Amino acid sequence: MSERTLVLIKPDAVRRGLVGEVLGRFERKGLTIEAMNLRSVDTALADEHYAEHLEQPWYPGLRDFITSGPLVALVLSGDQAISVVRGLLGATDGRKAAAGTIRGDYSLSNQQNLAHASDSPESAAREIKIWFPEA
Ligand SMILES: Nc1ncnc2c1ncn2[C@@H]1O[C@H](COP(=O)(O)OP(=O)(O)OP(=O)(O)O)[C@@H](O)[C@H]1O
User: Domain of life here (predicted)?
Assistant: First the structure.
């Protein structure tokens, strides 16, 4: 079934010049880019997106990171896009993510892990509304 998912190519990927590499993997997989923009994130937007993590001891560090420079927000669509994109990203911690995944190939961190992707239809709907209210 075709699904939409919200992806953030995080500030570490932008700084490292890996936007094209990450986007290319999504495109070559066959996913469709439905919407995309490069934007800065303020703390209010960071807190809304990461609402479920606000109480975590590591959240202040994550907020500093996600607001540290521009990121690329996009909506991808395709058959089972939510789980397919999570599979392409690999495990949250880049040190543990399997080789061949985006995080496994390019990240050595559990925070600066290149990209975010929605983890369920409910979070995709919530997150698409946050980042692309017009969509
Ligand atoms: N222990 C931690 N220390 C620092 N940052 C963390 C830690 N755990 C998670 N994070 C950061 O919070 C984000 C969200 O964590 P979550 O557990 O939801 O992982 P995820 O679902 O794989 O990642 P995402 O939601 O970004 O796709 C991670 O992508 C990472 O940037």
Answer: Bacteria
